[in-house]
Amino acid sequence: MPTSPPASPLPNSRTEPDGSAVIRVLSYNIRSMRDDTAALARVISACAPDLVLIQEAPRFFRWRKKLARLAAASGLVTLSGGATAAGPALLCSLRATVERTEDVLLPLTPGLHRRGFATAVVRFGDAARLGVLSCHLSLQQDERYEQGGMLLDRLAGMGVPYAVAGGDINERPNGRTFRRLAAELQDGWATRPWGAEYTSTPADPHQRIDAIFATSGVEILGCGVPVGHPGVHERDLRAATDHLPVLAALRAPAA
């Protein structure tokens, strides 16, 4: 894993005089918290996110309590998702004002894992409103492509002009589902690369299968794996889970 620091610091969260908001968004597959949860919490805390888009949140025995403990250890609160969204979940800082949440279960293909979206509409300050969606798309190519279309439809139907989506796409950028998303949305890394690119695996990063996307009008200030970010240590990234996180700084316009 590369250990050199990012070329420039990622902007800190803040509200601008014009009502727009700079926010940090983290997307992270946490493998049902089966690894080192203390390391996981340290990585999340060091990234200082306003929103965390989680995949593979705990889904079984006492799953709500496990997710709440991770949120508390990271200085955050649970927003939505978990078992009720078949794995995706959302955490947020107290900076976010929550307008509404919805957990969405996608059509089940017999013999395949159930998938879903964790979604919310949040506000930062008085004027910056943002739709948020966390996803973990199918391992099966045709189902994954259909889910990509459902993701785009869900964002379009959230009733807000700006939105961010992220998660485990289970596909590289040259795949047709990833290309479908990138044709309609801004791919954070491709738009404003920062940090490192590859998200899988922590021991041997060689592919980018996790991503953060944003709708037109959201300004991407930097996006990538936070290798070398202050407080994020390689040993924690290796111990926390089997994916590397994606961290983005975005400017959400005043609606």
Automatic annotation (TrEMBL):
<dbReference type="InterPro" id="IPR005135">
    <property type="entry name" value="Endo/exonuclease/phosphatase"/>
</dbReference>
<dbReference type="GO" id="GO:0004519">
    <property type="term" value="F:endonuclease activity"/>
</dbReference>
<keyword id="KW-0540">Nuclease</keyword>
<dbReference type="Pfam" id="PF03372">
    <property type="entry name" value="Exo_endo_phos"/>
</dbReference>
<keyword id="KW-0269">Exonuclease</keyword>
<dbReference type="GO" id="GO:0004527">
    <property type="term" value="F:exonuclease activity"/>
</dbReference>
<keyword id="KW-0255">Endonuclease</keyword>
<protein>
    <submittedName>
        <fullName>Endonuclease/exonuclease/phosphatase family protein</fullName>
    </submittedName>
</protein>
<dbReference type="InterPro" id="IPR036691">
    <property type="entry name" value="Endo/exonu/phosph_ase_sf"/>
</dbReference>
<keyword id="KW-0378">Hydrolase</keyword>
<feature type="domain" description="Endonuclease/exonuclease/phosphatase">
    <location>
        <begin position="26"/>
        <end position="243"/>
    </location>
</feature>
